[in-house]
UniProtKB/TrEMBL annotation:
The gene is gpsA. Catalyzes the reduction of the glycolytic intermediate dihydroxyacetone phosphate (DHAP) to sn-glycerol 3-phosphate (G3P), the key precursor for phospholipid synthesis. It is found in: Cytoplasm. This is Glycerol-3-phosphate dehydrogenase [NAD(P)+]. Keywords: Cytoplasm, Lipid biosynthesis, Lipid metabolism, NAD, NADP, Nucleotide-binding, Oxidoreductase, Phospholipid biosynthesis, Phospholipid metabolism. It comes from the Bacteria. NAD(+) binds at G10, A11, G12, A13, W14, G15, F84, A139, R254. Substrate binds at K107, R254, N255.
Length: 332
């Protein structure tokens, strides 16, 4: 199984970085962008000035505003924000060819339906072979070729091996897994937990508090993923713990930056104002809370974040609530 032409749907920072990866891997790459200024910037200057400035794209990468142009691709990477995955795939469906695999590269849970991205794909392109790409990866670093390792989850071992070979590029190393749910659950929840860690940083609560937040957040992530049917070992890898550590330890993370602003006293509206890139945790927090409740899973940190973002409680009330929880035995 060999892939020659990749279509990347979604020209935000992460989609653009992944187009760079497939270009480095030698694939003819067509990057789909909805925004006219992004198309013009890449065509005229080989740079996505809006979302990934200062990174010159590989010569294998071209750009289009028309999903129909992706009809000739033999591999699709789907990278729209999670809340736009369904309409994006529905729009692409007339141009998808049978047998062409779709690699889901967005992290989140669909609000309303509480569906994972694999479920959204199964409902929009029911016959598409699917895989999930997730892990600790800042787009700007990936696009500059800095060393990055991620999880590539695929239930079909033959397809998984082919995708792993195809997406391996200088500085970009995929590790193969079969647990798609684990890869998705870790990626969806870590964005919410990163907001919590940003609040800790913004309130200057100290490194001890941040370490506790990451550790207890990982316990929530593991419980949540296992309740969905994932394997705990998957979440302990790059797509769970690895991604959590990265996203919760650097203001370069959009989600942590959102929490940082909230911790410093800004309102949600102020923290989001003027941001063109999406903080997935803001959109996913209510869905994570609702899905965890439906599964009977205790997720106090994610509950608190969702309540803050929804204006139900203040940051200080959220912190007090977490600190005043009943004392208990530590377990995951």
């Amino acid at each position: 199984m060999e892939f020659r032409k990749a279509g990347v749907i979604g020209a935000g920072a992460w989609g653009t970085a992944l187009a760079q990866v497939t270009g480095w891997a030698g694939l003819e790459t067509l990057l789909h962008a909805r925004e006219g200024d992004v198309v013009d910037s890449i065509r005229d200057h080989r740079i996505n000035a809006a979302f990934l400035p200062d990174v010159v794209l590989d010569d294998h990468v071209q750009v289009t505003a028309d999903l129909a142009d992706l009809a000739g691709c033999d591999l699709i990477l789907a990278v729209p924000p999670a809340q736009f995955m369904r309409p994006t795939l529905e729009a692409f469906a007339p141009f998808w060819r049978p047998g062409v695999p779709v690699v889901l590269c967005s992290k989140g849970i669909e609000r309303g339906s509480l569906k994972l991205m694999t479920e959204v794909l199964s409902e929009t392109l029911p016959d598409a072979p699917q895989a999930v790409l997730s892990g600790p990866s800042f787009a700007a670093e990936v696009a500059r070729g800095l060393p990055t390792a991620v999880t590539l989850a695929c239930s079909d071992p033959v397809l998984g091996e082919a995708l792993m070979r195809t997406l391996s590029a200088p500085g970009f190393r995929p590790y193969l897994a079969t647990d798609l749910i684990g890869a998705e659950a870790g990626g969806a929840m870590k964005n919410v937990l990163a907001i919590a860690c940003g609040i800790v940083e913004g309130r200057a609560l100290g490194r001890s508090a941040q370490a506790a937040m990451i550790t207890r957040g990982f316990a929530e992530m593991t419980r949540f993923a296992v309740a969905l049917g994932a394997e705990a070992t998957t979440v302990a890898g790059l797509c769970g713990l690895g991604d959590l550590v990265l996203t919760c330890s650097s203001p370069q993370s959009r989600n942590m930056s959102l929490g940082l602003a909230l911790g410093q006293g800004q309102s949600v509206e102020q923290a989001l104002a003027g941001k063109r890139s999406v903080a997935e945790g803001y959109e996913s927090a209510p869905a994570v809370r609702d899905l965890a409740r439906s599964l009977g899973v205790e997720t106090p940190i994610c509950e608190a974040v969702a309540a803050v973002l929804n204006g139900e409680i203040t940051v200080d009330v959220a912190i007090d609530g977490l600190l005043s929880r009943p004392l208990k035995v530590e377990r995951h």
